[in-house]
Write a structure and sequence with these properties.
With about 450 residues, the chain is mainly beta. The protein contains 4 helices and 31 strands. The radius of gyration is 22 Å and the shape is globular. It comes from Streptomyces tamarix.
């Protein structure tokens, strides 16, 4: 037997003997014959003490187990296809999965109920962490030029996931990417150096996904939601110092058109004209938030400040008009244009409206009085144009500044495996407050002023 196999065999037997009451019939399933445990018992598999690599430990784990990783640099792509496993680092900044630009993704989750916590993922050609129900996406087959066009593959959702306290930096497409997934949470994480976007949610309906309390900076786009519809919440994030802070959009490259029904609330969206960032293909720069062919989205109590081109832009995607978007109780300061609506002649927006915002400039002028919420669904939205600043060239994603240390997962060494709920609790929009300008500033690199 090869030496590696002997080490893994000895490791799992050692790990299983730590479970109180071992010695009963362990039943069948993954790991059967490599050590027995009572039915329903869960273990902690430690890397490298019990298994030499993260991938080895994951292959030994059964539902409910915890894979706990010691500090070190791990040159591997970790694929999790067993349900309800928790993958957790002992130190967020010192447990590093480094793709060395030789693999598409650092962590690929294709099973439900998986939690990925307290580690850093970097230097992958596509994604830091990918959570997906798509076999093609999990294989890294499309996605070479941004996004996933899965062709004739039927839409299959991965149901339930958690990504928490993860640092994703210097990845060729997305830092943290939930694609064809539902019922999940991305929280307390940090994304930088995403050549497309730091955090991305795509192709879900209803999503039942919450993106909360994250920091995204130094990306082409901080957060992007493409064809992500219904019960899609982006709340309490700090999207500062990217080229574009946030977009929610429809795109024919993915399924489940059109995008609609996101809630974007309580975010700080500021200073999104950072030059030392990857340059996105469409050249966006200096924009806080954008709706591109999306409908029925609600922007509520966000602070949108210091974006050189525009604070919030609504436009159309080819043949898909933006309809019924509401901009309510936001604070706009120091933007080139606070709110700008611009549509192709043939694809006019309808029913978009504003109410209760602190703003100074709009295009067209006087939107705050001529497009007051609520509006009839079929009412035509006015449009205009403005002089946008020229976007400067960017830098390779591999050259984006390294992140500062980020907050640790509480009690990483002693907490048990995380139980991921079948459906997360969804925020109550009325409870979300307008953030101060200092939101998450203690952990950020780019100033808002």
């Amino acid at each position: 037997m090869p030496r590696l196999a002997l080490r893994v065999l000895a490791a799992v037997v050692g790990a299983l003997t730590l479970v109180a009451g071992c010695g009963g019939d362990g039943g069948s399933g993954k790991g059967s014959g490599k050590g027995r445990r009572p039915a329903g018992a869960h273990v902690t598999i430690r890397v490298p003490a019990d298994a030499p690599t993260i991938s080895d430990a994951v292959s030994l784990a059964r539902p409910g187990d915890l894979v706990l990783v010691a500090p070190g640099v791990y040159h591997e792509s970790v694929r999790i296809d067993t349900a309800r496993i928790t993958l957790r680092g002992l130190s967020r900044d010192q447990v590093v999965i480094d793709g060395r630009l030789q693999q598409p993704s650092g962590v690929v989750v294709s099973a439900p109920g998986v939690a990925v916590e307290n580690l850093t993922v970097k230097n992958n050609t596509q994604n830091g962490v990918l959570v997906t129900g798509s076999a093609k996406a999990a294989a890294g087959l499309p996605g070479g030029s941004g996004g996933y066009d899965t062709g004739d593959e039927p839409v299959t959702f991965l149901k339930s996931f958690l990504v928490s306290h993860v640092t994703a930096t210097r990845n060729g497409l997305y830092g943290i990417y939930a694609f064809s997934a539902q019922n999940g949470v991305i929280e307390h994480s940090y994304a930088s150096g995403g050549a497309d976007s730091g955090i991305y949610v795509g192709q879900c309906k209803p999503c039942n996904i919450v993106v909360r309390d994250n920091v995204a900076e130094l990306n082409a786009v901080g957060y992007e939601g493409t064809n992500a519809s219904e019960n899609m919440y982006v709340v309490g994030n700090r999207l500062v110092g990217n080229r574009v802070g946030l977009t929610t959009n429809s795109n024919h490259q993915e399924k489940l058109l059109p995008q609609k029904g996101s809630v974007i609330a309580g975010n700080l969206i500021a200073a999104n004209q950072q030059t030392a960032t990857p340059e996105q293909a469409d050249g966006g720069w200096g924009i806080g938030a954008g709706v591109d062919g999306g409908s029925d989205n609600r922007f509520v109590r966000n602070r949108i400040t210091g974006n050189r081109n525009a604070g919030l832009v609504i436009t159309a995607t080819a043949d898909i008009p933006p309809t019924g978007n509401q901009i309510v109780d936001n604070a706009f300061t120091g933007n080139g244009v606070d709110v700008g609506w611009t549509f192709p002649t043939a694809t006019r927006g309808r029913g978009n409206c504003l109410r209760g915002n602190d703003l100074r400039t709009t295009v067209p002028a006087r939107l705050a009085t001529t497009a007051v919420c609520p509006l009839p669904a079929g009412s035509s939205s006015p449009a205009g144009t403005w002089a946008a600043p020229t976007a400067p060239g960017g830098i390779p994603f591999t050259e984006v500044a390294a992140p500062a240390p980020q907050p640790q997962f509480p009690d990483a060494a002693t907490a048990g495996a995380t139980v991921v709920p079948p459906v997360p609790d969804l925020p109550k929009t009325e409870d979300i407050r307008l953030p101060p300008a200092s939101l998450l500033a203690a952990h950020a690199r780019v100033r808002t002023s």
